[in-house]
Structure formats: structure tokens, C-alpha cells
Design brief:
By secondary structure, the protein is mainly alpha-helical. About 65% of the residues lie in helices and about 10% in strands. The chain contains six helices and two strands, in the order H-H-H-H-E-E-H-H. It has helices at about 10-30, 35-45, 55-60, 65-75, 100-120, 125-140, and strands spanning about 80-85, 90-95. It has a two-stranded antiparallel ribbon. Helix 1 (about 10-30) packs across helix 5 and helix 3 (about 55-60) crosses helix 4. The longest helix is centred in the C-terminal third of the chain and has 21 residues, at about 100-120. It starts with 9 loop residues before the first helix and ends with a helix.
Length: about 140
Amino acid sequence: MVGTKTRPSLLYMVKQVELVVRSHLDELVKPAGITALQYTALTVLERHDGLSAAQLARDSFVTAQSMADLVRSLETRGLIRRERNPRNRRELLILLTDAARELLAHVAGPVRELEERMVRELTAHQEEQFRQALGKAWHALS
């Protein structure tokens, strides 16, 4: 039918949100000298310090090769350090440095404001439902 509009798919809408969030996040963290992907990896380590590169790649939604490049860059900047895993000497664990913790604290307010802006038109109940729905959607696909 000509002129009939269909609703965009949920996958399309999720991608739209992801792209606009990433664009805003890149602008927020750019003055700190990092990218949105680097910021994501640092926040993963902030929640779970001492991950292997493979674990960090999975939790940061990037490939192992991308993570290897990202780790080298963050280590060069002094934002992470690598240590041998005492339980598996062949494995290196990635840990945040104090400089990374300071950087994350510095951008925490603007990042929180971005998140608040994203859900500004939702009630507290709708925001919680949105959070739960996103978690269920992720769980269903992982």
C-alpha cells in the first residue's frame, strides 16, 4: 500500500539509540583523551577489576583483536596495568590505575547527565521498566 507507514523495528530503534549515545559519549570523553570504547572498557574494569583481555573484550562488546589494540593504548596512557594471574601464570589480568579512576570520576557527572537526559521523559517507574526490559532483551540474546 502506498503511503502506509510501518513502525520501525525494535532492532532499528535500539541501533539508533546506540549510535546517538555513542556519539554523545565520544564528545563527553574526548577532552579526557579517550574514546567511548575505551571509556566502556574502563567502566567494566571499574566494576570488575582484574579481568583477562578475553573477559574484558566480551564485557566491552568488542573483538579480541580490537581489545588488544585498546589495551595497548590504555596501558601506554597509564590508565591500566597488566599483572600475571597468580592462579594461572600464563594469563595477564588487566587492572585500573589511579589515573584511570581519576579520569572516570572526572567524567562521571557529564555521563550521568547524558543518561538522565536520555530518560528525562520517563517516569521513575518507566525508567525501571526500561532498565529491566533492556536486561531481559540482552539476556535473551546472550
